[in-house]
Amino acid sequence: MRSSLSDPRLSVIEKRLANVRTIIPVMSPKGGVGKTLVSTLLAYSLGKQGLKTALLDLDITNPTAHIVLGINTSEVKPREEKGLIPPSIHGIYFMSVAYFIEEDKPLPLRGDEIDNVIREILAITIWGSLDALIIDTPPGTSDEVLDVLNYFRGIRPIVVTTPSPLSIKSLERLLQLLIDYRVEVLGVIENMYRGEQVSARIHEITKKYGVKYLGFIPYEKDIDKYIGNVKEMEKTLFYKSIEKIASTIM
Ligand SMILES: Nc1ncnc2c1ncn2[C@@H]1O[C@H](COP(=O)(O)OP(=O)(O)O)[C@@H](O)[C@H]1O
Ligand SMILES: [Mg+2]
Questions:
Q1: Domain annotation for the chain: domains and CATH numbers
Q2: Is the dihedral of CA 112, 180, 65, 73 positive or negative?
């Protein structure tokens, strides 16, 4: 149990999220598997479908979603109005700790401090009514991920994995954790797909845990060229795969 359970921000957080229809944290057992690209482009794609969508970058010590969106966080800022209203970027409401830190400065925070920053962000952000809130998270079962599990009700996480044996190994661990928390997983996305043979193991695991395999995103060697330019990103196979998945989840 946490020591500050009487923190008044906790009841504020619940009210702030009261009109958000679906909360989709994008999680992964391992770093560098494409969570940030997936969460950002998934939010963008849902926004394009006409759904009222927001994106929250909860990778507190290493926020990067704004880089995918191509915005300068020293110029674009949330609007203050008895809280903070996230700016609309490419059709999605975007909130990140990046607005409040200097771009190239490290943010060394311990567990309690991370928890505190997350409570603060969740308590001050005015989402209004949303169809979907997509959350980018750091890998594994870090503090941010545990906070997501503790502070958000009725979340439907998407888990991203790659066919690498290292990622697959920890996929089971993460799925088990989510099941232990009684969280209903929306499904698993296989990123950097390299062919059916390696995929088979992921299919086995999703079957074993009763979780849906949402689809795959092929390995696309030039993907980094389009980071920061969503219009160009739209032409990639990566985005087209995301779009296909996005059309099935809401
Ligand atoms: N489908 C893909 N094909 C090729 N490279 C990819 C793909 N997905 C991700 N990457 C590479 O992995 C890097 C890390 O992606 P990112 O979304 O930041 O992962 P995470 O948030 O899980 O750490 C990207 O910058 C890109 O170079
Ligand atoms: Mg990331």
A1: 23-249 (3.40.50.300)
A2: negative
